Amino acid sequence: QVQLVESGGGLVQAGGSLKLSCAASGRTFRSYDMGWFRQAPGKQREFVAAIRRSDGSTYYADSVKGRFTISRDNAKNTGYLQMNSLKSEDTAVYYCAASRRVGTGLGSEVYYDYWGQGTQVTVSS
Q1: 125: how many CB neighbours lie within 10 A of its CB?
Q2: Which residues of the chain have pLDDT under 50?
Q3: Residue 88 to residue 31: CA distance in whole angstroms
Q4: Strand-pair partners of 38
Q5: H-run or E-run covering 120
Q6: What are the backbone angles phi and psi of residue 101, rounded to the nearest 5°?
Q7: Which of 70, 71, 64 is closest to 46 using CA atoms?
Q8: What is the pLDDT of residue 49?
């Protein structure tokens, strides 16, 4: 298994930027697909972005395309989510997740078996 710890959350003004990190330990991180999800108060957890382990292909929710960038550094066992042009509606707890599954379901919560504890991102207007 793999353990995940998110960091980098905080308070930022609308239009600003923030970079989240997801540090992995346990089995080699390069063996896992990685995703980012977020959950706002009273709302369902939603997909944000994902990156494959095989070829590094990336996927984004329509709401963050052009503003967020997912990446990974396997040598450091760390994944990242660079968030630019932040909006108030981006306010949520952000979670990283990992999976060894084979398939096309990277945008679904059920694809992932391992989750971090979450980090709060608050965007003020």
Answers
A1: 9
A2: none
A3: 35
A4: 46, 94
A5: strand 119-124
A6: -65, 160
A7: 64
A8: 98
pLDDT of amino acid 60: 98
Q: What is the mean pLDDT of the chain?
A: 96
Token readout for 59 is 């996927």
Report CA torsion sign: 118, 44, 55, 85: negative
Dihedral pair phi/psi, residue 94, rounded to 5°:
-105, 130
% the chain with pLDDT above 70? 100
Tokens, residue 4: 């995940």
Evaluate the CA torsion angle 62, 41, 38, 14 in order and state its sign.
positive
Mapped onto helix, strand or coil, the DSSP state of residue 5 is strand
Tokens of 100: 């060894």
- pLDDT (tens digit per residue) in 38-57: 999 999 999 999 999 988 99
Half-sphere exposure of 67 (CA within 13 A, CB side): 16
Distance CA(20)–CA(92), nearest Å, equals 13
